[in-house]
Amino acid sequence: xxxxxxxxxxxxxxxxxxxxxxxxxxxxxxxxxxxxxxxxxxxxxxxxxxxxxxxxxxxxxxxxxxxxxxxxxxxxxxxxxxxxxxxxxxxxxxxxxxxxxxxxxxxxxxxxxxxxxxxxxxxxxxxxxxxxxxxxxxxxxxxxxxxxxxxxxxxxxxxxxxxxxxxxxxxxxxxxxxxxxxxxxxxxxxxxxxxxxxxxxxxxxxxxxxxxxxxxxxxxxxxxxxxxxxxxxxxxxxxxxxxxxxxxxxxxxxxxxxxxxxxxxxxxxxxxxxxxxxxxxxxxxxxxxxxxxxxxxxxxxxxxxxxxxxxxxxxxxxxxxxxxxxxxxxxxxxxxxxxxxxxxxxxxxxxxxxxxxxxxxxxxxxxxxxxxxxxxxxxxxxxxxxxxxxxxxxxxxxxxxxxxxxxxxxxxxxxx
Length: 416
Ligand SMILES: Cc1cc2nc3c(=O)[nH]c(=O)nc-3n(C[C@H](O)[C@H](O)[C@H](O)COP(=O)(O)OP(=O)(O)OC[C@H]3O[C@@H](n4cnc5c(N)ncnc54)[C@H](O)[C@@H]3O)c2cc1C
Fold this sequence. Notes:
Elements: E1 8-11, H1 15-26, E2 31-35, E3 46-49, E4 52-55, E5 61-62, H2 66-73, E6 80-81, E7 88-91, E8 94-97, H3 102-107, H4 113-127, H5 139-146, H6 150-164, H7 174-181, E9 186-189, H8 194-206, E10 210-213, E11 217-223, E12 226-231, E13 236-239, E14 241-244, H9 248-254, E15 269-278, E16 288-291, E17 296-300, E18 314-322, H10 332-342, E19 350-362, E20 379-381, H11 392-414
Parallel strand pairs: 1-2, 1-14, 2-10, 7-16, 14-20
Antiparallel strand pairs: 3-4, 5-9, 6-9, 7-8, 11-12, 12-13, 15-18, 15-19, 16-17, 17-18
Helix pairs in contact: 1-8, 1-11, 2-11, 4-6, 6-7
The structure holds flavin-adenine dinucleotide (FAD).
Flavin-adenine dinucleotide binds near residues 12, 44 and 383.
Protein name: Amine oxidase domain-containing protein
Pfam families: Amino_oxidase
GO molecular function: oxidoreductase activity
């Protein structure tokens, strides 16, 4: 088969595209993966900044999430560590120790006695998976109906932001939020998520996947079993199956000309991030902090994972979880001020600094899309806005595997 005629074209070289390519190639299909930027990785890219490996904002895998399960199936076990639970929490501008276990909840200055009892009850129900929520109920509504103490409400909201990255509690379903809170420990990966990308890439290439970076898909024409995938370098690839892992906006662009229902009800989750490498942390005793007053996050990932060639350097992530109605203002100063609360005098120790004002963390918090575009047989989709399982990268891994399996099954049936 010529390189211009493949069994499947995969669009996008992030986690979802690479994962799907491996499953497809393992089943014997010839696959070309097209990535529009010069380097693969998508939002899981890690930039090397003055000898430190810096993800695009704080990135953690969850010990009970789908990602590790699927990576294990692919023969990859990411190396990293879990942060010790603890740190600081800011409430009414004052710092408190972050209550991390039943004993520290009971001894915390943060809550009243009644609040402590309510929070402990919440944790027990969460751990025993007995938290009940009607399918459609939002986080806001659930908290309003089930938690009386206002501080406990704010504390639970803060934990939900931490695990889901979502700051729209009136839209996020309580059921989805609780599942995120049950995903176990966070894992920070040594040398950043690029190390996972490199392993996926190596596996894909060994199986014969052609990875073409630096060319974007401009347009799709034709129909199953003969699609034409037109690229920005004026070349075309002909294929019976297409698997797109591009964002919904990109997908709409290259599907112009097809009758498709609008991709509705997508609510993207966004964040503003300040990623900094310091040669010294002024306050080494605090490596993690959250705010209950504002949706703010601080973490020194180097305290947990190896992220710099020079062991004394620290990779710090400061982030604001953005709500859908967040005004488009410059948030850099707010992030820097929060960093000053936790690490006063950090400015003197900066080696590298990057500000991401409005990055898409996940393409949608509500995921209703099926893997196959019903109006265009042969065209499949995957990513963190597709499928019924998980959020964030768990849904990218899971939907990628599901879409690849659907193509393999269909191909066996059709014998194309
Ligand atoms: C600040 C931040 C923090 C995060 N933290 C976490 C975390 O802690 N835990 C977690 O689970 N997840 C986290 N995530 C989410 C996680 O990074 C993403 O869910 C995951 O990387 C998405 O992978 P993907 O392959 O689905 O999409 P992407 O990585 O977006 O890949 C899609 C690819 O398609 C390419 N593309 C688009 N259009 C075209 C075209 N026309 N032609 C060719 N190629 C195209 C793009 O360039 C891109 O490389 C975080 C994300 C951010 C931004």
